[in-house]
Specification:
heterodimer, A: 146 residues, alpha/beta, Nucleotidyltransferase, domain 5, two-stranded parallel sheet, 32% helix, B: 190 residues, 5-stranded mixed beta sheet, 9 strands
């Protein structure tokens, strides 16, 4: 009995490869905090990912807890940040974009469900202060009750 | 002097492709970003005049305290009832005295339509959990969406999502989403 020809194996794998290359995006930041976003039903997809800046809030991961404690912290890009850094972050995000795209920019808040609203309210105030008014509360899809 | 070049062995092509595949699997994410979109109000300058007060009957007050309990229009309520209550308030189907007033507005496709002057005010404490807050936001958005779906079905026989852009605008005029969030302050202490 002749062995099965594996000549088309590369083609199959390449096909898989292209599928993944097209359907996924590069991981941009390494999360230093644990974020499990809440679930919701009335969600909308975020268009134009390049115009979205992310603010993460949550409890630091185990390995950072010795240094940063267990209280929810803000993460911008790859670092832990203070509340005051938010304005600077938004400004630098704006500078990186084209001028006429700035009004379309959205800030996505990826906040852990167990966080208290205090810190979120503070962030929202900071965002208002630098007039980054379009925000998106990141959530995942919950199956409808119906 | 043409020499037959030996065939390149393609046996390892699969391995190379696998390697690339695994690299992409590890470095990319697939999650689609989605969520509840909101617009924050711009900061009011101090010297600006106060906007005229809104009549009490036109405001639907939702409070969430630090123990994640909901108070809606003065009553304690479970989050599961919020949607129905909000729909009742927005629509005011029986034109009740204590629910919002209506104003006749000329709307495309609908003609003159009594549009309710509703505003939903959401207030939360610093100690409220984000989960509860989002759940409340979601229920309120759901109330609007269900009402929009209802009227779209009545008028166009289609869901709101399936309507053309101008039709959506008209429906939005009838049920504008007005969720206002109060300036932050502490409710109920910690």
């Amino acid at each position: 009995m002749p062995g099965i020809s594996t000549a088309s194996l590369p083609d199959i794998v390449f096909m898989l490869l292209f599928f993944f290359m097209v359907s996924t995006v590069m991981r941009e930041t390494e999360l230093k905090i644990r974020v499990t976003v809440p679930k919701a039903t009335e969600i909308k997809k975020l268009e134009q990912k390049s115009l979205v800046s992310y603010i993460y809030v949550g409890e630091p991961r185990r390995m950072y807890q010795a240094k940063y404690g267990t209280e929810p912290r803000i993460q911008l890009n790859d670092q832990f940040a203070q509340l005051e850094d938010v304005i600077q972050f938004i400004t630098s995000e704006r500078e990186a974009r084209d001028e006429n795209e700035v009004p379309k920019m959205t800030t996505s808040l990826k906040v852990d469900g167990k966080t208290e609203m205090g810190i979120v309210t503070d962030i929202k105030q900071e965002l208002r202060r630098c007039s980054a008014l379009k925000i998106n509360y990141s959530t995942t899809k919950k199956a409808d009750k119906k | 002097m043409a020499r037959a070049t030996p065939e390149i062995n393609g046996g390892s092509l699969a391995d190379i492709a696998f390697l690339l595949l695994i690299f992409f699997l590890v470095t990319t994410t697939m999650d689609v970003d989605s969520g509840l979109s909101r617009k924050l109000p711009p900061i009011m300058p101090d010297d600006m005049e106060k906007p005229p007060d809104i009549k009490e009957r036109n405001v639907f007050i939702v409070l969430i305290n630090s123990k994640n309990q909901l108070q809606v229009e003065g009553k304690l309520m479970s989050i599961n009832n919020l949607r129905e209550e909000a729909k009742e308030f927005i629509k005011n189907p029986r034109d009740l005295e204590e629910l919002p007033e209506k104003k006749d507005v000329e709307v495309e496709f609908f003609g003159v339509y009594p549009v309710s002057k509703q505003v939903i005010s959401l207030m939360n404490d610093r100690g409220t959990s984000y989960e509860t807050y989002i759940a409340a936001q979601n229920e309120l958005a759901a109330a609007y969406n269900e009402l929009r779906d209802e009227i779209s079905m009545q008028r166009f026989g289609k869901k709101f999502e399936a309507l053309a852009e101008e039709e959506q605008e008209a429906v939005k005029k009838i049920y504008p989403q007005r969720i206002s969030e109060a300036e932050p302050r502490n409710v109920g202490g910690k």
